[in-house]
């Protein structure tokens, strides 16, 4: 049985570190610099890797590989990387297989630089990938995955932004949320197979909180530049393509696609425009 634990830190600093390993071939590395940081790593399963780095004060980092979500299902072949720089940040990575004998590999990474940021990535099955990068203060990012072959990425730069990606169902979905500015909000929900949704917001107080793909093989790309813009999307069919481009302030787009093979492109340049499209 192979277990590896590496803890790095100066004795002059106050830190809390908790480890638990059950299984074989697991590896955990923790490096903390600063005061009153807390690191927790639990590994239940085989061949898991955890790296947890914290530089600052009062940061809290947790990696749970197996043993959560009921039934104490183990995690196998999962890798978690976490790096927090600043003060009062909190991050959580949870990884497990869908069943005890699962072997599909997962990789999840959280990087936060600033203060009072929060990020969580969790997968209830192997074979998924997730990334979060937050730079600024009081940003919030949340990603959830089940089934397999999902990919999600959240990048937020600024303050008080919120992003959520929900891939709880089906398989082979891809989602990206990129937000730059302050008080932007983005949420993507994917329930079908083989969907792709990419959304970028640059400015302040923009909303894209209802991006929903319930069908299969749908594609969406959105780009909002400005302030106080809002976009919503529902794709409940198959093989639909949608594009939204907004440059201005106080604009609104709504798109619903419930049929098959539809195409929509909404472009707004200016202020106070409204666009509503329904394709059945």
UniProtKB/TrEMBL annotation:
Residues passing through the membrane, by range: none
List the GO biological process terms. cell adhesion
Name of the protein: Curlin surface protein
Under the heading InterPro entries, the entry gives: Curlin_rpt
List, alphabetically, the Pfam families matched.
Curlin_rpt
The signal peptide here is: 1-20
Name one cellular component (GO) term.
pilus
Family of this protein: Belongs to the CsgA/CsgB family.
Q: Does the keyword Protease apply?
A: no
- Keyword NADP in the entry? The reply is no
The organism of origin for this protein: Algoriphagus marincola HL-49
Keywords, comma-separated and alphabetical: Signal
């Amino acid at each position: 049985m192979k277990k590896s634990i590496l803890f790095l830190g100066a004795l002059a600093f106050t830190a809390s570190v908790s480890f638990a390993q059950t299984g074989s071939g697991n590896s955990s590395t923790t490096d903390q610099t600063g005061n009153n940081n807390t690191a927790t790593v639990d590994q239940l399963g085989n061949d898991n890797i955890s790296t947890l780095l914290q530089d600052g004060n009062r940061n809290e980092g947790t990696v749970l590989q197996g043993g959560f979500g009921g039934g104490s299902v183990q995690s196998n072949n999962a890798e978690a990387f976490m790096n927090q720089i600043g003060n009062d940040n909190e991050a959580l990575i949870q990884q497990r297989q869908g069943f005890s004998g699962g072997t599909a590999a997962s990789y999840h990474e959280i990087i936060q630089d600033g203060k009072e940021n929060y990020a969580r990535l969790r997968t209830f099955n192997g074979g998924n990938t997730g990334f979060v990068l937050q730079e600024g203060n009081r940003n919030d990012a949340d990603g959830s995955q089940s089934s397999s072959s999902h990919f999600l990425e959240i990048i937020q730069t600024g303050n008080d932004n919120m992003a959520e990606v929900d891939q709880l169902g089906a398989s082979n979905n891809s989602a990206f949320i990129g937000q730059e500015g302050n008080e932007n909000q983005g949420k993507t929900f994917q329930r079908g197979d083989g969907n792709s949704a990419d959304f970028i917001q640059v400015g302040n107080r923009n909303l894209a909180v209802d991006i929903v793909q319930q069908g299969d093989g749908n594609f969406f790309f959105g780009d909002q530049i400005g302030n106080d813009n809002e976009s919503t999307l529902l794709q409940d069919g198959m093989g639909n393509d949608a594009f939204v481009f907004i440059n201005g302030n106080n604009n609104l787009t709504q798109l619903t696609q419930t049929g098959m093979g539809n195409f929509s492109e909404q472009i707004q340049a200016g202020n106070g425009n409204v666009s509503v499209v329904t394709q059945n």
